[in-house]
# Entry
Amino acid sequence: MYASFRSIGAYAPKKIYDNSYFESILDTSDEWILKRTGIKERHIADENEFTSDMGVKAAEIAIERSGLKKEEIDLIVCATISPDYFCMPSTATIIATKLGLGNITAFDISAACTGFVYALSVARAFIESGMKKNVLIIGAEKLSAITDYSDRGTCILFGDGAGSAVISATENKEEAIIDIHTGSDGSYADLLMTPNGGTGSEHDELASETCFMKMKGNETFKVAVRTLTKDVVEILETNKIQSDKIDHFIPHQANYRIIKAVGDALKLKEEQVVLTVAKYGNTSGASIPMAINDIYESGKLKHGELMLLDAFGGGLTWGSALVPFAGK
Ligand code: COA
# Structure
């Protein structure tokens, strides 16, 4: 049995913070943000709109497009670093219940911006081992809840949203996910972290302000370019696929300059590279499925086309995947 990428869905909250919003609260400018990041807007969830709510909206679309009955889903994996609740219950179990799928295996994984690629690898393993048939994977983030809006070096980057895919068993090898590489290196943990709120906290209190993300932006930038490039070169070489055979290169949407540097290193043409960072900012685990959904909804992603996913995030974690689109 092989695992195939059967459908995609996504959701972005209505409220938008454009660059002028940050000009009104910080010492920054539209010009600086655009030049350094390529970001114009980010979608921001309402106060009472939770990560699970966004995950449910994306999942409903992915399930409908899969042509499956929701009861045929037998596993839910949610990738998030901004869960509804810090420790438990998992956001996946809340999503399962909101979808009306109470009695199901459901759990979260934490791999920051690489979360969706990790979730894809988990889904593939469950399917290829014969344990599950139709896995719903979700990347959902309410990063606005863990963003320090007084830190101009980080707050301009992040947005909220969710993306979801149904990964299904198939006997058709042509539809099969070709390969997934994942990795991590915890020695870089301090580049991007939420230093408080867990049992390794610097402070005793669990007040939310102390749980905000902290980032060494410049160092992260350099490691991101290096890692994202190395990762895709390796997966292409292992599978003896030339970069010109990739229909859609879908990198984690963190910064236009990072994506451009990786695309240039791989000698990719502009039309091969999927860019959504301008309108969503960095939505961590949701960024890759939201980008896939964008090209699907604009009619650019067709059945059988080859996607190359490339993710990088806090941990550090990284992952890449060669995935034919098996949807209609
Ligand atoms: N507006 C105006 N100036 C700003 C600013 C802002 N929003 N944020 C930082 N600056 C200033 C800094 O204070 C610094 O000023 P100084 O030279 O007077 O000290 C200057 O701009 C340069 O700061 P630096 O951090 O070196 O900028 P940069 O070119 O590295 O750009 C990031 C900053 C955050 C855009 C960039 O480092 C980045 O995108 N890093 C990767 C982040 C990322 O992808 N994280 C997620 C990984 S999944």
